[in-house]
Amino acid sequence: MVTWTERIVIRDGVRLSCRDWGGSGSPVLLLHGLAGHAGEFDAVAAHLSARHRVVALDQRGHGASERRPADVSREAHVADVLAVAARLGLDRPVLVGQSLGGHTAMLTAAAHPDLVRGLVLVDAGPAAAAPDTPATIDEGLGSWPLPFPSLDAAREFLGSDAWAAGLERRHDGWYPRFDRDVMVAAITPVTTRPWWPEWQRVACPALVVLGERGIVPPAESAEMLRLAGPDTTLVSVPGSGHDVHLDRPEVLHPLLSGFLDALPRT
Q1: How far, in Å, CA of 256 to CA of 137, rounded?
Q2: What is the domain range of residue 112?
Q3: CATH number at residue 23
Q4: What is its EC number (predicted)?
Q5: Which residues, listed in sequence order, are joined to residue 15 by a DSSP beta bridge?
């Protein structure tokens, strides 16, 4: 059975926890979305680690990483990616990011083209998030009936084994491994402006995998293709919502393998 080892990277005093799946091939760094955790990518990591060095990061404010970092800016998240890649010896990794993790991956590839070999966005795009997104996130997370009395109760409410697996047990039940106000603060910068200039600066090959019922509307995906470089492929996954990696892993895994296999070896 494939297993992982926890690796800790400290950047500017902030603890960053990673699941290092090992592997001796070209490196892949997996970035989860808002209110998520590295374990969401366990199935992806297990699939890819036979041929690649795979690391999944608990992003700041999430999971086993620093719970209440002072800085949750987009720049801080990009700097975390660079620090993890450098400290763990991930030379020019392919960045695979879902949702807010995809946004972070895009910004990293745009700002540091010499350090990123390929980019995979999973239901993520460069348009500005709606102005009411922080309030919607706040309301949504506030509706969680905490504490969950059991993992079964959490699975039923959250609708996902993977999301329930990100919870922590306390004396009176199960709680998320993040704080609601930190999540609101982390998503707010995405609402401040569109990020099309960064998307246009992505120079590496890119794969965009969108859920048929995800958050990226057809007009945005069409504009992404229009402005993308020649080595960009976009795929819509039927029957999938926002969490393509959880909804349709049997579709996503071969897409990732095919993309990685087709990348230039240099």
Answers
A1: 29
A2: 5-130+194-262
A3: 3.40.50.1820
A4: 3.1.1.10
A5: 10
Rounded to 5°, angle at Cα 15 from 9 and 20: 45
Can you read off the two tokens belonging to residue 64? 């086993």
Sheet of strand 232-237, all strands in order from the earlier edge strand to the far edge:
5-11, 14-20, 53-58, 27-31, 94-98, 118-122, 206-211, 232-237
Instruction: Tell me the backbone φ, ψ of residue 119, rounded to 5 degrees.
Output: -135, 130
**pLDDT tens-place string over residues 187-229:** 999 999 999 999 999 999 999 999 999 999 999 999 999 999 8
Helix axes 133-142, 180-187, angle to 10 degrees: 160
Q: Among 58, 34, 82, which Cα is nearest to 182's? A: 34
Measured between alpha carbons, how far is 259 from 242 in angstroms, rounded to an integer?
A: 20
User: Are the C-beta atoms of residues 86 and 9 closer than 8 Å to each other?
Assistant: no
Query: Does residue 37 lie within any of the structural domains?
Result: yes
Classified as helix, coil or strand, 1 is coil
Phi (first) and psi of residue 50, to 5 degrees: -65, -25
Q: Report, as an integer, the average pLDDT of 20-36.
A: 95
232 lies in a domain? yes
DSSP states of 167-234: EEEETTEEEESS-HHHHHHHHGGGGSS--HHHHHH--S-EEEEEETTSSS-HHHHHHHHHHS-TTEEE
68-113 pLDDT, tens digit per residue, is 999 999 999 999 999 999 999 999 999 999 999 999 999 999 999 9
pTM of the model: 0.97
The dihedral over CA atoms of 252, 262, 19, 250, expressed in degrees to the nearest 10, equals: 20
Instruction: Give helix 100-111 / helix 74-87 axis angle, nearest 10°.
Output: 70
Q: State the Cα–Cα distance between residues 210 and 244, nearest whole angstrom.
A: 7
Residue 161: what residue type?
D
Q: Is 250 a domain residue?
A: yes
